[in-house]
Specification:
This protein is of the alpha+beta class. It has one domain: Histidine kinase-like ATPase, C-terminal domain (Heat Shock Protein 90), CATH 3.30.565. Helices cover about 50% and strands about 20% of the residues. The model has no long low-confidence stretch (mean pLDDT about 90).
Length: about 210
């Protein structure tokens, strides 16, 4: 099958914006619904429920935006470094929802921005392989600024979506849409950082590695 052309810069930016908007629209909508309920509701118990719903939705929206800022945004000037501890915090805030747990075994060190962005996007790819929940274990490959990553996602019926390998490789067979832009962007980050991403599936486990090409 002939591979479709990769998106141009403007289309890439538009697709990433669509992805972020898709992620935050639900919790923001839930906040609006909760506020409307507060305006109309007379029962104090229901008001308490609405306030808790608003607080929960606000936490989710905040977590998604903080993650997007590091994973997709500029996150500092060119050549900036990011603390892996900060990356762990935003990853856990986004992902750990009772279904998925992160076992983060990386040292708290500063790494080049693009390498940390790659790691966070790999976390999203790994979580996407365990739709029914499970654990994502993250270990280092090597050390220092050339550190690579190994992510092991384990959960019931863990599987790699058929389109993901091509998207990561930059050769999507069916083009790139707002659903596929995240793994496609992950591949762009890997190549920009001089790294190669590989995937392997073994039973209820999927392993992703990112190491020097």
């Amino acid at each position: 099958m002939t591979n479709h052309a990769a998106p141009e810069n403007l289309q890439l930016a538009a697709l990433l914006c669509s992805r972020v908007c898709h992620d935050v629209i639900n919790p923001v909508g839930a906040i609006i619904n909760g506020l409307e309920l507060l305006d109309d509701e007379k029962d104090e118990e229901m008001k308490t429920v609405a306030l808790e719903h608003i607080r929960k939705s606000a936490r989710i929206a905040s977590a998604k935006l903080k993650f997007a800022r590091l994973a997709f945004g500029a996150a500092g000037s060119a050549g900036a470094q990011i603390d892996l501890g900060d990356a762990a915090d935003v990853a856990r805030s986004l992902v750990e929802d009772g279904r998925v747990k992160i076992d983060w075994n990386l040292p708290r060190v500063l790494l080049p921005k693009d390498r940390v962005k790659l790691l966070l996007n790999l976390v999203l790819v790994a979580v996407g392989t365990i739709a029914r929940g499970g654990t994502v274990k993250i270990d280092a490959i090597g050390e220092g600024e050339r550190m690579g990553f190994r992510l092991e996602a384990q959960g019931q019926n863990a599987r790699i979506q058929p389109a993901v390998p091509g998207l990561l490789a930059g050769t999507p067979e069916d083009g790139v849409d707002s659903h596929g832009i995240q793994p496609f962007y992950t591949g762009l980050l890997a190549r920009a950082a001089g790294m190669q991403v590989s995937l392997a599936s073994e039973g209820d486990r999927v392993v992703l590695t990112a190491a020097e090409a």
